[in-house]
Amino acid sequence: MSSAILMRNLAKTYGMVVAVEDLSLAVPKGSMFGFLGPNGSGKSTTIGCLTGLLDPSAGEMEILGERFTAESADLKRRMGVMPETLGLFEPLYAHEFLAFVARMFGLDEATTRTRVTELLAALELTDTRKTLAEFSTGMRKRVAFAAAVIHSPEVLFLDEPFESIDPAGVALMKQWLRRFTEQGRTVFITSHVLETVERLCTAVAIITKPGKLVWQGDITVLANEGSIQYEGQEFHALEPLFLHLTGQHYADLNWL
Amino acid sequence: MNLELLGNLLRLRYRLIWAKTRSRNGKIALFMAGYLLLIAAFGALAAGGLGAGAIAVRAGKATQIAAGVLFGVYLCATIGTVILGFGMNAIFAESEMRRYPLRARERRLARHIVAMLDLYWYLVVGLDLGLLAGLYLYGAGFFWLGLLAVLLLYVCNYVTARVVSTIVERLVARRGGSILLMAAIMVLSLGPSFLMPYLQKHPHAVGPYLAWGKWTPPYGAALAMTRGDLSAVWGLGLILLWTALLGAAMVALEQWPVRARVASSGKLQWASRYERVGAFLGPQNAILIGQWLRFFSRNNRFRMMYPLSLPLVGFLVYALTRQTGMAHGPKVEFASAMGAYAIVGFIGTAQFAVNQFGYVGSGLRRYLLLPADPAVALRSCSYTFALLNMVLIVVGLVVWPFLSRGEFDPLMMVLLAGCSLTGMFLYLTAGLWVSLLAARRGNYYSSFGNDLSFAGNVILIGAMMALVFLPRVAAESWPDMFRSGYWWVTLAAAAVAAGIYWMSLERASVWFRARRERLLAIMEGRS
């Protein structure tokens, strides 16, 4: 299967601080790919590089078989992004914001109107008297999600998409994402909710600080009550594997 | 009263100022600001204080002269806070302060004390102290009473500025409020100019106007500075009375709930008038310019500043041409008009043009995700300002025949249009670079406060000061250069300025791409 996203020796440094180090990764086309790591491990930085927000310090990136840089406007048109900081224009109304994004991604006015109306209704964002600044965090997240999918992209980058969204919203988004990959499109997703990733994704990559890949593989076996073998150990769920790989341990505070 | 927490908040305010010096630019800015402040304070001490003292001794009118100087400082400080937002940065919003165990009264007190300790007010107090020192040195002042008066006047001045600002803020937030405000500003700014000829013809009518001045806080302070008798006590009492009245008004205004504008209909509105306006600069820019227009049209500060620039322009043109012309002759009037019309070219968007992304926040990220050259955000924003300024230039030219003296000269219109376009292109060019190299995160929802970087303030204030004073100096030095026959020179200057702007757009776009990560960090509050 060809790769929708390909990174070769990707690195990103801020002065002396290394955020991502020599990261190589291939994400198969049509997959729901989970990109996991502890806080500050470089997930958002990697997504930033893959979406043109940041310039990598070294390495190469390919999206849908083409070399990707921040200037790749044609490729960007085929990508949808939901950044961690949502990137909304707060004084706008949801429909104005979505219409702006749709028009910038090349949709004509009639299609824009149809899709905006349908998305607002589907995501229950019909309160048109509130600007985005007046929306709750969950509703703002829904708007950012709608902006990422409005132009039917071939590759979708979602940075922590389910945080702050209510269960009904999460269920709807999951349903859409499954249909998305069934059509051969690719979803690249970061999340700290490992149960959700385990149920939703077909493959994951786990990185540790500073943006170093420690494991990549198929996790569909976990959904079929199977297990993953690693260093002679058997893992029946993603969480123990994640904790084992990232070496996470928490101090016990007596006064707490 | 939780004094410990209040003290902590005050310390935090200065720690935040100091934290800005962690960046190289911040260090330079702080040094320069401090240095300029010192020079300004010194100049004020020497010129204002000693000069007024000397005049007072010679003329025997210490109280009247001191009152006049103090009134000027008082008025300038109030206007400076309302128009330029100096000394009004709250630092701590009410919602932030509610996190701490402070009562409402303590929160209010902390907020105002923090605002009063802004560097801007130090300058105002410095000017007042300069006057006191001058009066004292020349033997016409009472130091301790005067010092008390200066401190009380400082508090009163702050409260006045806060009341005026809050009224303006509330007006702007209401439907039709901007128009009401504009009318008030026009009356206040143009009224005295139109009243002047009447008062010159009827000097006996001046008396009642001046009598009112004796009931103002600056007059009270002047009494305390120059008299050692009961009238000094009366002066201090007058300031206290004003402070109490204005303080009560301030508390009442702050407790008066803000009526937010709400949409009148729950239906989706697909208004595309912004895009239609944006299409004036080409269909490829229509959506982005439309987006910027929509963005700014909902900003309280923009809604206040842009319409206000119209009466301000009228006032500038009137004050710089007719009055200056009457006093210094037609050549100076001619040169002043050129300076005033160059200001017309950028005044409407001046605050925003030198900090283009200051109010976008994480929205800047969205521009970078668009399937276009990342620098398109920079260029489209600058085009938007050009479009908005063009409107003011046209309005300015339309009102010129009504403001000018003598016969109508069509060449003069061409010449002034050239001046406006030159001013606009050069200011927008400076704005591009300052927005890139000295960007600062602002608060979109605040109507007041100066969100500009040091470089932004230098460009904004420097450009206006230069255009007010330099043409007059030039006209007095080279009077033959100023006549409408040279109309083509300003058009050529406009063409050169447009060329510089065009080249800067290209060059700044390259810089924008290279600096976008830094800009993103600033706008998202990570730097």
Distance between the termini of chain B: 35 Å
Number of helices of chain B: 21
Note poorly predicted spans of chain B. 262-266
Largest interface: A-B, 42 and 37 residues
Q: pLDDT average of chain A, as an integer?
A: 91
Brief sketch in words of this structure:
The complex is a heterodimer of chains A (256) and B (527). With 256 residues, chain A is of the alpha/beta class.
Overall description:
The complex is a heterodimer of chains A (256) and B (527). Chain A has a six-stranded mixed beta sheet with strand order 6-7-8-3-9-10, with helices on both faces. Chain A has nine helices and twelve strands. Chain A is 34% helix and 27% strand. The radius of gyration of chain A is 19 Å and the shape is globular. In chain B, helix 15 runs antiparallel to helix 20 (454-477) and helix 19 (410-437) packs antiparallel against helix 20. The chains are: A alpha/beta (256), B mainly alpha (527). The interface between A and B is large, with 42 and 37 residues.
Features of the shown structure:
heterodimer; A: 256 residues; alpha/beta; Rossmann fold; 2 domains; six-stranded mixed β-sheet; 12 strands; 34% helix; globular; B: 527 residues; mainly alpha; 21 helices
How does the SSE layout of this entry go?
The complex is a heterodimer of chains A (256) and B (527).
Chain A lengths: L2 E12 L2 E12 L3 E5 L6 H8 L7 E6 L2 E2 L5 H4 L2 E4 L11 H11 L4 H14 L14 H13 L5 E5 L7 H16 L3 E5 L3 H7 L2 E6 L3 E7 L1 H4 L4 E3 L2 E3 L2 H9 L10
Helix pairs in contact in A: 3-4
Chain B lengths: L2 H17 L4 H36 L2 H23 L9 H4 L6 H13 L2 H19 L5 H31 L3 H25 L4 H8 L3 H10 L3 H26 L17 H6 L4 H15 L2 H29 L1 H15 L5 H4 L9 H7 L6 H28 L6 H28 L16 H24 L9 H37 L4
Helix pairs in contact in B: 1-5, 2-3, 2-6, 3-6, 3-7, 3-10, 6-7, 7-8, 7-10, 7-11, 8-14, 10-11, 13-18, 14-15, 14-18, 15-19, 15-20, 18-19, 19-20, 19-21
